[in-house]
Specification:
The chain is of the alpha/beta class. It has a single domain, classed as TIM Barrel, CATH 3.20.20.20. 42% of the residues lie in helices and 16% in strands. The protein contains ten helices and ten strands. The strands form two sheets. The protein has an eight-stranded parallel beta sheet. Strands 1-2 form a two-stranded antiparallel sheet. β7, α5 and β8 form a beta-alpha-beta unit. α1 crosses α2, α2 runs parallel beside α3 and α9 runs parallel beside α10. 51% of the residues are buried.
Length: 283
């Protein structure tokens, strides 16, 4: 597990990633794969966000558009109506950094103005205007790899070498950000588990995660409750906490610095234990 000082700048604040941190998942959508829209109402979403912060989430990732396989797109105004009130309230009520999970430049700009300090983009700032909006925001950024788009990405994902291709793509997006004047200390990358990948692709990426981490950009992973856990355990999304925590620990031991999780408390505890064991091995 990493121990060298690694910093991530997030709109005037700095995260110390010397030990892996947890990002809580807060879907304010009616069609989330993991929670079935339980937090679609503003009140329920804010309550859940506060609960995750109390359980130790360093970031809370607010998403107003589902990116599950087969998901349909959401308009800009609808997405803004879903996420902005939640971001504003959580920014006032907690010290956790608020992240917005979006690919739309309009949502990025409005979320940053509302107090978000991090932008998590499954399309890696490839939408028109997204790179410019992200650069102007001052927010920390996550660039994710996805083959295809949410509507079609799981139809027939195929790679010659999944690790090399994901690494090359992410390196290219990091370079694009740097060319746009974005401080490298604002950037993290995500291999995109489950986004245009088969079970074996996901497992291969996890086994070789240290190769991505070796490029020096903090790695964020999202494995929580995904179909990989379901296929390995036979469990439904709401019953995947143990499998998800196991994958979180494996990812952290292989170099991940931010773990995106639905079950924040158990994940935080597991990472504390893993960090203690890894620190003993560094003496």
């Amino acid at each position: 597990m990493p121990s060298a000082p690694v910093l991530l700048r997030c709109a005037g604040r700095t995260l110390d990633l010397s030990r892996p941190l947890v990002m809580g998942v807060l879907n304010v959508t009616p069609d989330s794969f993991s929670d079935g829209g339980r937090f679609a109402s503003r009140e329920a979403a804010i309550e859940q966000g506060l609960r995750m912060a109390a359980e130790g989430a360093a970031l809370i990732d607010v998403g107003g558009e589902s990116t599950r396989p087969g998901a349909e797109p959401v308009g800009v105004q609808e997405e803004l109506q879903r996420v902005l009130p939640v971001i504003e309230q959580l920014r006032r009520a907690t010290t956790a950094i608020i992240s917005v999970d979006t690919s739309k430049p309009e949502v990025m700009a409005a979320a940053a103005a509302a107090g978000a300090g991090f932008i998590n983009d499954v399309r890696a700032l490839r939408e028109p205007g997204a790179l410019e909006a992200a650069a102007a925001s001052g927010c920390g950024l996550c660039l994710m790899h996805m083959q295809g788009d949410p509507r079609t990405m799981q139809a027939a994902p195929s790679y010659r070498d999944v690790v090399a291709e994901v690494r090359e793509f992410l390196g290219g997006r990091v370079a694009a950000c740097r060319s746009a004047g974005i401080d490298p200390l604002r950037i993290s990358v995500d291999p995109g588990f489950g986004f245009g990948k088969t079970l074996e692709h996901n497992l291969t990426l996890l086994r070789h995660l240290s190769e991505l981490a070796a490029d020096g950009i903090p790695v964020l992973v999202g494995l929580s409750r995904k179909s990989t856990v379901g296929k390995l355990t036979g469990r439904d999304p709401g019953e995947r906490v143990y499998g998800s925590v196991a994958l979180a620990v494996i990812a952290a031991l292989n170099g991940a610095r931010i773990i995106r999780a639905h079950d924040v408390g158990p994940t935080v505890d597991a990472l504390k234990v893993a960090a203690a064991v890894a620190a003993e091995g560094e003496d």
